[in-house]
Specification:
two-stranded antiparallel sheet, single chain, 85 residues, 2 strands
Length: 85
């Protein structure tokens, strides 16, 4: 993920990279994966986010667990996993 951020910072700070040809030649020299290069060159942020496997997907579901009597306590179950595309 760090490499992707560095490339995005370089793109934001260098106005010559607004040209598609210059952007493509810069991306070829980076150490990004093919899918990351494609996502950046096609300006597809959703696909780029999918290629960054460092981002965990967190799902939280409240569970109602009965206690003694009529009172109920709420517990939250958190499951974290990362996908590698």
């Amino acid at each position: 993920m760090n490499k992707v951020i560095e490339v995005l910072i370089q793109m934001a700070s260098d106005s010559s990279l607004s040209n598609d040809r210059a952007l493509t030649s810069m991306l070829v020299t980076t150490d990004l994966t093919e899918s990351q290069v494609f996502a950046i060159s096609s300006k597809n942020i959703e696909r780029l986010a999918e290629t960054i496997y460092d981002l965990p997907m967190i799902k939280c579901v409240p569970l109602m667990v009965p206690e003694d009597g009529n009172e109920m306590e709420i517990f939250t179950c958190i499951k974290t996993f990362a996908t590698n595309v």
